[in-house]
Automatic annotation (TrEMBL):
Pfam families: Bac_luciferase (PF00296). Keywords: Oxidoreductase. InterPro entries: F420-G6PD/mer, F420_OxRdatse_CPS4043_pred, Luciferase-like_dom, Luciferase-like_sf. One of its GO terms (molecular function) is oxidoreductase activity, acting on paired donors, with incorporation or reduction of molecular oxygen. This is F420-dependent oxidoreductase, CPS_4043 family.
Length: 333
């Protein structure tokens, strides 16, 4: 089991440096940043900075999308970060939720997500690439042949199929072992059907973690199911609430959802949290004492999850990192 942390772009630079050093020392091997350039500061400057203050930790956006930057600009950023860090960069891609919708634009198609991954990976390797309507192919003379690992964020059946067929891993924004198994199995089955070797396919459960009193932990992390509910609402709109293509345990909790405020995306002061119940928060997050965290992450591991990634957005960041370093991560070594 790998362990990661994720920051939003409003974290101050000195605090980000301090926390990534602490996290690497504690045994975390990944650090991810939200890529939503209007809501928060651009993530790639912060990634470059944090790379300089770590030795082994890997970095990447969680997640970027195909429509927010020209593809050669995006690939140049990815390749530059890969080169200067000695290959410590992963690419995680989604359709573009907050990043696009806050501008009034629609998310990208899944076909475009898959093509974006393939074309940017090829550019980072140093291959000549044509994309879109550019009149001349693009080739980076400075590329060093780095093979950039890829992930796709997914919930719905078509997104899971795309992840299995076109990426090396799937990003699942929840920590419910049953749902994670269902999602991961969908990816693996799709990849096998496409003729891929899925033995090294990776599955990330990305969710908040919190220690101590359960009621306080639930209050600190209830913003998260609301953020997930925004994605689930898209799935319900496409497939219906009673579709057998999506588990009822995922879709049922948004029945009383009234809306979503993108200006408060992924934040505790989002005004649309009233439909979130304590049991949903407990299912989606990892809460309680260290032994509770260990038990749940073992269940995630048994469900096929290969990385638990903590959304470090709920307060008590030092305590969370320290408790994982002292108690949780050693249980998986």
């Amino acid at each position: 089991m790998e362990f990661g942390i994720t920051f939003k772009g409003f974290i101050e630079a000195d605090r980000a440096r301090y926390l990534v050093r602490a996290a690497e020392y504690a045994g975390f091997s990944y650090c991810w940043f939200y890529d939503s350039h209007i809501l928060w500061r651009d993530c790639y400057a912060a990634i470059a900075m944090c790379m300089e203050h770590t030795e082994h930790m890997r970095f990447g956006p969680l997640v970027t999308n195909p429509d927010v930057r020209d593809w050669s600009v995006a690939a140049s950023i990815f390749g530059s970060l890969s080169k200067q860090s000695g290959g410590r960069f992963d690419l995680a891609v989604g359709r573009g939720d907050s990043s696009m919708r806050v501008m009034g634009k629609k998310p990208a198609t899944l076909a475009r997500v898959a093509e974006f991954i393939a074309k940017t990976q090829a550019m980072v390797r140093g291959e000549e690439v044509s994309y879109g309507e550019i009149p001349a192919a693009v080739k980076f003379p400075w590329a060093v042949g780095h093979e950039m690992p890829s992930w796709i964020a997914a919930y719905g059946p078509l997104a899971l199929k795309t992840a299995g067929e076109h990426a090396g891993g799937v990003v699942l924004q929840l920590a419910d072992p049953g749902l994670c198994k269902w999602f991961t199995d969908q990816c693996i089955d799709a990849g096998k059907a496409a003729g891929k070797d899925m033995s090294n396919f990776r599955s990330m459960a990305a969710a908040p973690a919190y220690f101590g009193d359960k009621a306080r932990a639930i209050e600190a992390t209830k913003w998260f199911p609301a953020m997930v509910g925004n994605h689930v609402a898209d799935i319900v709109e496409k497939y219906g609430a009673d579709s057998d293509k999506v588990p009822a345990s995922l879709t049922s909790y948004i029945e009383k959802r009234r809306g979503y405020d993108y200006s408060k995306h992924g934040q505790a002061d989002n005004p649309f949290l009233d439909f979130i119940t304590p049991d949903v928060v407990e299912n989606f997050c990892v809460l309680g004492e260290p032994e509770d965290h260990i038990t749940k992450i073992h269940a995630l591991e048994e469900a096929g999850v290969t990385q638990f990634n903590i959304y470090l957005d709920s307060g008590d960041e030092e305590e969370i990192i320290a408790n994982y370093g002292r108690h949780v991560i050693p249980a998986f070594r």
